[in-house]
Amino acid sequence: MFTLKHITPYGSESVHESAEVSYTPNAEIIDIPLVNNEGNTEAVWASSGTVWWRAEPSHELVPINNGSVYVMNDAGSTVSRYNLGGWRS
After folding, report:
1. Structural domain tally of the chain?
2. How far, in Å, CA of 76 to CA of 68, rounded?
3. What is the 3-state secondary structure (H, E, C) of 20-65?
4. N or C end of the chain, less CB within 10 A?
5. In sequence order, what are the beta bridge partners of 87?
6. Does the pTM exceed 0.85?
C-alpha cells in the first residue's frame, strides 16, 4: 500500500492511499496562456506529466496533473516525488 500526498499549485493538500501508483511523462511542456479581463497575459500553465493512483473500492484510476506529489511506502519513506508544474507568472 502507498500513501500519496498531493500539494496543489495553490498550496492545498490532500492525502490518498492506493495499492497502485504510476507516472506518465509528457513529451513536452504544455503552455496555455491565462489572460485576464483586460486582455493581458498573467501566467501560463506548465505540465510535465500525470501521476495516476487507483481509488478503492471503485478501482478507478485517478489522475493528478499539477502541483507536487509525494509517494510514501508502508514504512513512511518517500519512494518517489513528482513536480508536475502549475500556474506560473
Report:
1. 1
2. 17
3. CEEEEECCCCCCEEEECCCCCEEEEECCCEEEEEECCCCCCEEEEC
4. C
5. 45
6. no
Q: Are 23 and 82 in contact (CB under 8 A)?
A: yes
Say what the pLDDT of residue 89 is: 40
pLDDT, position 10: 87
pLDDT band (50, 70, 90) for residue 14 = very high
Q: Which domain holds residue 27?
A: 2-88
Is the pLDDT at 80 greater than 90? The verdict is yes
Q: In the chain, how long is the greatest CA-to-CA distance?
A: 51
Q: Quickly count: other Cβ atoms within 10 Å of residue 21's Cβ.
A: 19
18 vs 3, 52, 62, 78, 84, CA distance in Å?
6, 10, 10, 14, 19
Q: Residue 59: its pLDDT value, please? A: 85
